[in-house]
Amino acid sequence: MLSDKDRARISATISKVESKTSGEIFCVLAKGVSHYREVPLLWAAVAAFAVPPLLVMVGLHRLALASIFSSWTDDSARAMEGLILRALSTFELVQAGVFLVVAIIVAVPSVRRAMTPGTLKQHRVRQAARRHFVAVGARLTHAEPHILIFASLADRRVELVAHDNIHKAVGEGPWTASVAAVVKGIKAGKAADGFVAAIEICGAALAEHFPPDGTPKNRSPNTVLET
Prior knowledge:
elongated, 4 strands, four-stranded mixed sheet, alpha/beta
């Protein structure tokens, strides 16, 4: 995903900003966080429930019904029963067909990705980011401020997770700017540029509120983890 030159730039930027703060910055770049296998079934179910009733509403059997009701007899009643049975059978067949066709189409990876709701993407990216944040935090003490910059290329989503002490001291401004920088870089096909900009923004905020307290500990690697 990244070239050796890009990895070196990101690593050098992390080392540079961490030399001016007691905080730690960790970066993760993921190809994707989920296959969203439930999405084809979701859209297939929606289409199967929505399309057949719409066909009925636009008058699928309007002419047939009109001819029966025009002269109501015993034969008409029997014809109506037959029509209802055929209509119900047709409805179920159309419903099953719509479900199958839509499921197959949306199962195509590119279509599935495009049809995945943005809220679901953001939720999955946030979950993945928090798992990485917990893993990184396990190597640090509670008092050591740390930030995770997590980006998913396929989802084009970025999540920044910070230690509670950092949120209280800094607020949301730098984090919003950092996320925007990574998103901009990913959309431009220059993820490394986005990470470098975000690291510099986070580093400036950490240096202002969490100055160095001795030799940098580097408990987390000054590299970007690619998954």
